[in-house]
Write a structure and sequence with these properties.
disordered C terminus, 19 helices, about 20% strand, single chain, hydrolase, 14-stranded mixed beta sheet, transmembrane, membrane, about 775 residues, SAC_dom, transmembrane helix, alpha+beta, six-stranded mixed beta sheet
Length: about 775
């Protein structure tokens, strides 16, 4: 009888070896034991030889598989299963830290076949296994062994968090699957943290200088699901289709040279109200149902408090939904969203009010160039308020390594809209750190003063897919100009829409939009504006849009229910129990209880929803609900490319979820001081895991700006540019943007306070209406 699985983990240099043992005689409980001894290669092979010799009578050790990390463990009605990454593909690298996607995975039952319960091969058990396998790990999941892909670059450089706290991030999708082994071992050496969304890295050039650009989209695991089954907000303030997008660019230079790096973060998410749409096989556009159960907009307020906690202040909301309709649909939400912001802003001090922009993109989409130009101007103002992240890092071999500064102090208090970022403590600390950096810069002119992002632009339409992606591209293009200017690649901080860089970036954002739309909506994104911008034949564009509409309709009507079930199982929102209704026997999870933690499944509901607190990506918090935080300076299983090999002591049957193709990406674990680590010293943390079977066969007052306000009649694109009576002429606006975006890195990043260092209020007032200036500078209401 084969009693154990043995997993052997090693580092990249084959100098550190560890052993993990998984009990196979326990039919229902998961028992995982880690040998605390660190072995050399010869010692580890000697240990395995002795285990093999001692169990020859029952078959000895049997090689199972090579793996590159444990995704987690899951139990349905019968035994536990182990999910392993068995093939991977490099999809990029951030400052020497490789990022991988999964190209093949396996699901292996843990108990020996002789002790498996009768439920192992039951009809419901097999259906749950099949359901889980529909979550394709080879599409859009990504990870890294040495870089925390679940966090933004700014947070990685600002916080010294280690170990399990990273798995509590809202962007780690296998938090539930790894919870058991992490709590058991009190470390994360053997697991990898998976991020779901999008990752693409390319090499671009400007003025003969090459640089690398990475676009990362991280999808939240909270309130996750499909288009019509997850809408709006839940009681905890989590919104559907919540995606953080980060644009990172850095110099393409040899590793021994100083590296300049910059990032900017933006956010998309469903309108944070209680609303829904019932899936219909007869109606492509179901009615929008608005619930008014939250008269005080408590959930909406929780959502924006969470944004402040994650990104700081200000929060700028760009609402792209329609302003006029023959039959009210989107306009219902537009009005209620405005009411919610008004209500919330009444209780906030002027400096912390939400900045809310209404702009009907659909109405202005007749000319792609005008739409992108106007959105670019909005992006310029948003960037002026939030700033970007930029720093220069000396070679990792330097005695100092990273610059000796911290972006944001950890904060023990509560975050709220009224007290968004502990300004006194964090900013005072930041000021002193920047002063030190400036002093260092004066002594060494090659070191530039760092800049930081505080606040975020949050964009939404109805689905937060098609129109939102266009707006995010416009923001990304303006941000790229600021980033290139900060790195010294461009004298100006603006990039013309006809610049080849604009076309390159458009294709990347278009690919991201298609990926995110397939995940949430079931089809690629509607890219009419992008197609028109490229000069694509109008008939071809219309045909493509029609096909995608039909594809999305079919997916929503016939496939989304099962897809939602699979997501709920994977995330642990529903945990099967014997004697309880099966997942497919329950009503829609639109009506299930939200926010509970516990082992019991709620009767007559689709799932037990487990919502954990999310941490931020720009701010640092001490309030992670993790039970243990144990880390190793040189972890075996996963730092920089871990390989896992497996030997097992039995020959159980295998259920596999695999594919040879990958379109996706994923995440890691590392102390911040190792972000730009010395390659020779630290990359030894790559680990190989070998799984052995002891003797078996192989295991098979609001702050509004309505962008329609300059034109009270037609609200056309031309009106928005030409209405001189409103004081917003294209000439004035263009000139002002130019003034604001040509600041140097040293001028525009020295403080988180008041992002208006690029131009005085007098400069602004000379070219804009007083009400618009008040909106930009202090959050007055501007809404028509």
């Amino acid at each position: 009888m084969w009693q154990n699985f043995y997993m052997i983990g090693r580092d990249k240099n084959r100098t550190l070896w560890r052993v993990l043992k998984i009990d196979r005689l326990e039919p229902s409980e998961l028992i995982v034991l880690e040998d605390s001894t660190t072995y050399s290669e010869s010692e580890c092979y000697d240990l395995l030889r002795r285990i093999h010799e001692g169990n020859k009578s029952t078959g000895g050790l049997k090689f199972v598989t090579i793996c590159y990390g444990i995704v987690g463990f899951i139990k349905f009605l019968g035994p536990h299963y182990m999910l392993l990454i068995t093939k991977r593909r490099k999809i990029g690298a951030i400052c020497g830290h490789t990022v991988y996607s999964i190209t093949k995975s396996e699901m292996i039952p843990i108990p020996n076949s002789t002790v498996q319960s009768n439920m192992t091969n039951s009809k419901n058990e097999n259906r749950y296994k099949k359901l889980l396998c529909t979550v394709d790990l080879t599409r859009d999941f990504f990870f890294s062994y040495s870089y925390h892909v679940m966090h933004s670059l700014q947070k990685n450089l600002s916080c010294n968090e280690t170990g399990q706290v990273h798995y509590e991030s809202m962007f780690v999708w296998n938090e539930f699957l790894t919870r058991g082994i992490r709590n058991n071992l009190k470390n994360t050496l053997w697991t990898v943290a998976l991020v779901y969304g999008f990752f693409k890295q390319v090499k671009l050039s400007v003025s003969g200088k090459e640089f690398k650009l990475a676009l990362i989209a991280r999808r939240s695991r909270h309130y996750a699901g499909t288009r019509y089954l997850k809408r709006g907000v839940n009681e905890k303030g989590r919104v559907a289709n919540d995606v953080e997008t980060e644009q990172i660019m850095f110099e393409d230079v040899p590793e021994e040279q100083p590296v300049q790096i910059s990032s900017v973060v933006q956010n998309r998410g469903s309108i944070p109200l209680f609303w829904s749409q019932e899936t219909s096989r007869l109606n492509i556009k179901p009615d929008i149902i608005l619930s008014r159960k939250d008269q005080n907009f408590e959930a909406t307020k929780l959502h924006f408090e969470n944004l402040v906690k994650r990104y700081g202040s200000p929060i700028i909301v760009l609402n792209l939904i329609k302003s006029r309709e023959k039959k009210p649909r989107e306009t219902i939400l537009r009005s209620e969203f405005a009411n919610a912001i008004r209500f919330i802003n009444k209780s906030l001090p002027e400096e912390n009010r939400l900045k809310f922009l209404h702009w009907d993109l659909h109405k202005h989409s007749r000319k792609a160039t005008n739409v992108l130009a106007l959105l670019g101007r909005v992006a310029s103002y948003a960037l002026n308020l939030t700033g970007i992240f930029y720093c220069q890092v000396m070679p990792s071999s330097s005695s100092k390594g990273l610059l000796n500064w911290s972006c944001v102090e950890e904060h023990d208090g509560d975050y709220s809209l009224e007290n968004p970022s502990s300004e006194n403590g964090n900013v005072n600390k930041l000021d002193s750190e920047i002063a030190k950096a400036e002093c260092d810069a004066n002594q060494n002119q090659s070191i530039k003063v760092p800049m930081f992002q505080s606040g975020v632009l949050r964009t939404n339409c109805i689905d937060c897919l098609d129109r939102t992606n266009v707006a995010q591209y416009a923001y990304g293009l303006v941000a790229l100009g600021h980033q290139l200017h900060a790195l010294g690649y461009m004298e100006s901080s603006s990039i013309d829409l006809d610049n080849p860089l604009a076309e390159d970036l458009m294709r990347i954002y278009e690919t991201m939009g298609d990926t995110l739309a397939l995940q949430y909506g079931g089809s690629a994104a509607h890219n009419k504006i992008f197609s028109e911008r490229r000069g694509q034949w109008k008939a071809a564009t219309q045909s493509q849009e029609f096909f995608r509409t039909l594809q999305r309709y079919y997916s929503n009507a016939y496939m989304d229910a099962e897809k939602q079930d699979a997501i709920n199982v994977f995330l642990g929102h529903f945990q099967p129990q014997q004697g309880k209704p099966a997942l497919w026997e329950l009503d829609s999870d639109q009506h299930c209880n939200v926010g509970k933690r516990g082992p019991d499944v709620v009767e007559n509901a689709r799932s037990l929803i487990k919502r954990s607190l999310s941490d931020g990506n720009l701010r640092c918090e001490n309030e992670s609900p993790v039970a243990a935080n144990v880390g190793y300076s040189k972890p075996l299983s996963g730092k920089e490319g871990g390989v896992s090999n497996g030997l097992s002591d039995s020959n159980p049957e295998i259920s596999t979820c695999e594919s040879d193709m990958s379109y996706s990406r994923y995440t890691p674990s590392m102390p911040c001081r190792k972000l730009f680590k010395d390659v020779e010293e630290y990359r030894c943390v790559e680990s190989n895991h070998i799984c052995y079977d002891e003797h078996g066969d192989a295991c098979s007052s609001s702050n509004f700006f309505d962008m329609d306000w300059p034109s009270t009649s037609g609200n056309s694109c031309e009106d928005l540019c030409d209405r001189s009576s409103a004081g917003l002429s294209s000439e004035n606006l263009g000139n002002d943007v130019k003034v604001e975006t040509t600041t140097s890195a040293s001028d525009s990043g020295s403080s988180l306070k008041g992002r208006s260092q690029t131009g005085s209020s007098d400069d602004l007032a000379s070219g804009f209406p007083v009400r618009f200036v008040q909106w930009v500078m202090s959050g007055e209401m501007l809404f028509h």
